[in-house]
Design a protein that fits this description.
By secondary structure, the chain is an alpha+beta fold. It contains two helices and three strands; from the N terminus they run βββαα. The chain has one domain. It has a three-stranded antiparallel β-sheet.
């Protein structure tokens, strides 16, 4: 069993429940069902009644500009040299561990 949400761009985040919980992000509900649908045996239940999940276009359009309004991007010349990572910690995403 999993619980999750669908974002305005159609992508889906799921949190699998149980003794070994895990979170996964998918491009859409159809992708989740293609992998975990068990040939039609999986049931998706929405909390909201059908037809209430859609948002007016003006609200969705505002999301595209939200990042620019909340975060000022500095020019490269204004950036200082980043601090060195602590010993034993590689720099950047390459140091992240992923379990499968």
């Amino acid at each position: 069993m999993a619980e999750g949400c669908q974002f305005t761009d159609g992508s889906v985040a799921l949190r699998w429940r149980g003794d070994n919980p895990a979170t996964a992000v998918w491009p859409n509900v159809e992708s989740v069902l293609a992998v975990h649908g068990h040939q039609g045996a999986t049931e998706v239940r929405w909390i909201e009644p059908a037809g209430t999940r859609a948002e007016p276009p003006e609200l969705r359009a505002g999301l595209d500009n939200l990042f620019d309004e909340l975060h000022q991007v500095r020019a490269p010349s204004s950036l200082s040299e980043p601090l060195s990572p602590p010993p034993g910690h590689p720099r950047g995403w390459a140091g992240a561990r992923h379990l499968r």
